[in-house]
């Protein structure tokens, strides 16, 4: 099941879009934000990498719109691309190397999934994602050939983790969130140490499993996209209970040897192009609530992925 409709359309039909934007507005004007930290008004000094931007096949001007939105924010977007749009995005990434890093969406249950991954690689794609709606748990042996290729390419893979939206209400659908639980990423990270394993949505609601898997696996990170930062807007400090091991011996190697447990997070928006700036505000509100150090914030917002992806443009 690919993104044949946009998440925005889906939310709109569910009547949820209004709720999301209202709560986002509340976060953006939250007094906890330090002065001048609003993403919409600030031009950050360092590059921001947004790991979670779905290519919108419904928007014929998507690439131009993306460049317009990301340039003033200094954002490089990892564009998660359906196989049928692979040429358009490969070409756009060549034209806008500072704005677009191409990622390929592969239906893991397709009989030619490995061949699709090879083709994405030949076109210059930097990884896969967002893998989701799998028919079997992520660790199923039938998926190993794709992971073997990704390991050979030293690729980054973005996996959906946790609760997933329902697309059909009248017909049966073969979708189950448990197949995408965050703890499955542990086995993939250990079997394939050259893959950088990214979990979207921090395992919502199993944040604790996500945090623990990230803690012991240097090649695992999570983004906080989706409903989590909205759900927890009044208790963002609770993330300290999930990312708890700062300053203890209970962690492992981290980017730039950063000692904060929060360094296991990366930035992802997953809300369409006009959702990037509000998602940055939400991340920053969480940073403030949890006293995340400045150095760690930079790594989360872009430093970690800039290094892993070797971004220079
Ligand atoms: Zn997802």
Secondary structure layout:
Layout: H1 7-13, H2 17-28, E1 48-54, H3 62-73, E2 75-82, H4 86-95, E3 100-105, H5 113-122, E4 127-131, H6 144-152, E5 156-160, H7 184-191, E6 196-200, H8 207-216, E7 220-223, H9 228-231, H10 239-242, E8 265-266, H11 276-289, H12 294-309
Parallel strand pairs: 1-2, 2-3, 3-4, 4-5, 5-6, 6-7, 7-8
Helix pairs in contact: 2-11, 5-6
Bound molecules: zinc ion.
Keywords summarizing the entry:
37% helix, alpha/beta, 313 residues, binds zinc ion, TIM Barrel, disordered N terminus
Structural class: alpha/beta
Q: How much helix is in the residues?
A: 25-40%
Assign the CATH superfamily: Metal-dependent hydrolases
CATH class: Alpha Beta
Radius of gyration: 18 Å
What report would you give on this structure?
The protein is α/β, with parallel strands linked by helices. It has one domain: Metal-dependent hydrolases (TIM Barrel, Alpha-Beta Barrel). It contains twelve helices and eight strands. It has helices at 7-13, 17-28, 62-73, 86-95, 113-122, 144-152, 184-191, 207-216, 228-231, 239-242, 276-289, 294-309, and strands spanning 48-54, 75-82, 100-105, 127-131, 156-160, 196-200, 220-223, 265-266. An eight-stranded parallel sheet has the order 1-2-3-4-5-6-7-8. The longest helix has 16 residues, at 294-309. Mean pLDDT is 89; it is low at 1-6 and 11-44. The structure holds zinc ion (ZN). Zinc ion is lined by residues 130, 132, 160, 200-201.
């Amino acid at each position: 099941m690919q993104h044949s409709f946009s998440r925005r359309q889906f939310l709109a039909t569910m009547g949820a879009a209004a709720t999301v934007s209202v709560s986002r507005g509340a976060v953006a004007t939250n007094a906890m934000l330090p002065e001048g930290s609003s993403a919409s008004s600030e031009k950050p000094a360092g590059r921001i990498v947004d790991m979670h931007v779905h290519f919108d096949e419904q928007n014929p001007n998507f690439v131009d719109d993306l460049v317009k939105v990301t340039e003033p924010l200094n954002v490089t977007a990892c564009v998660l691309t359906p196989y049928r749009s692979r040429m358009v995005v490969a070409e756009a990434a060549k034209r806008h190397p500072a704005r677009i890093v191409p990622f390929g969406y592969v239906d893991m249950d397709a009989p030619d999934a490995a061949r699709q991954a090879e083709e994405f690689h030949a076109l210059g794609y930097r990884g896969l994602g967002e893998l989701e709606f799998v028919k079997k748990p992520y660790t199923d042996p039938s998926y190993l050939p794709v992971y073997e290729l990704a390991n050979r390419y030293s690729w980054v893979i973005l996996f959906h983790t946790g609760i997933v939206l329902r697309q059909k209400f009248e017909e049966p659908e073969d979708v189950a969130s448990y197949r995408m639980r965050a703890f499955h990423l542990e086995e993939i990270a250990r079997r394939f140490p050259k893959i950088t394993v990214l979990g979207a949505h921090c395992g919502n609601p199993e944040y604790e499993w996500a945090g623990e898997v990230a803690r012991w696996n240097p090649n695992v990170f999570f983004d906080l996209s989706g409903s989590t930062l909205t759900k927890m807007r009044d208790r963002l400090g609770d993330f300290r209970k999930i990312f708890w091991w700062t300053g203890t011996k209970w962690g492992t190697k981290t980017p730039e040897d950063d000692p904060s447990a929060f360094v296991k997070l990366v930035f992802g928006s997953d809300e369409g192009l006009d959702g990037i700036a509000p998602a940055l505000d939400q991340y920053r509100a969480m940073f403030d609530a949890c006293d995340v150090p400045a150095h760690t914030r930079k790594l989360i917002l872009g430093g970690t992925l800039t290094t892993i992806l070797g971004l220079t443009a």
